[in-house]
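Milestone M4 deliverable, item 7.
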Amino acid sequence: MHAVFRFLSYWPLWMLHGLGAVLGWCAYALSSTYRKRVRDNAGQAQLSGAALYASIAAAGKMVCELPRLWFGKPVPVYWRGEALIDQALADGRGVLFLTPHLGCFEITAQAYAQRFGARKPMTVLYSPARKQWLRALVDHARKRPGLETAPATLGGVKQLIKALKGGGCVGLLPDQVPPQGQGVWSPFFGRDAYTMTLGARLALQTDALVLLGWGERLPFGRGFTVHVLPLPAGLVDDLGGATAQINRAMETLIAHAPQQYLWGYARYKAPKAGGGV
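Output delivered:
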């Protein structure tokens, strides 16, 4: 599989996206479970028509662009709102960067590492892939200057807190479903979803600046634009309320490009049993 990823990494981005669009539609056509989840989740957000159909192709593009991002030549990356990061780093303040499953969320960490990593690295929380071959690929791909990883354990959370208190940057995907005991039920597009509290906890404990970000996938393989926006309002000093605020902020981001959101993610599933962090 490593050889396949290496081979695909030489492909131009437009070709990978073309292949991804085909595979995205194949997955949608062949799996009734996946098809129902996409339609149910998108319907919960009142998404239909052209935007829904585009999201089916976008899910495949997200997968097929990974070989290029992990092993290939750098792709064009543009920025909007990067002054917010510049100012926070200049002030010595920690930055909590929240990115939903929107567009190319892999590029946001890479782009930060390339542009700002020499000043302060970004630490991202991760859960190791279950399959050994994929774990080896991901571990190799994410070892780059300016980018550090923290496991989804108590020790990893302590690493995140230390990074933020030291004026560093931490990246999270707050719309992931955490294990039982690590979240609360909170509305997401009008339906309760089990939502991680880690983002709110980190922000409230460290007084980090919370920024919202996502990597817009540009058409015809022209690269990506990383958008950085401020949190609409300061987080309330209440874990449940702050978590709900973050969910609303994610909805606002997704509304910018719903056709690039991963509607096939099982956002409303019940959490699995797991140790708290």
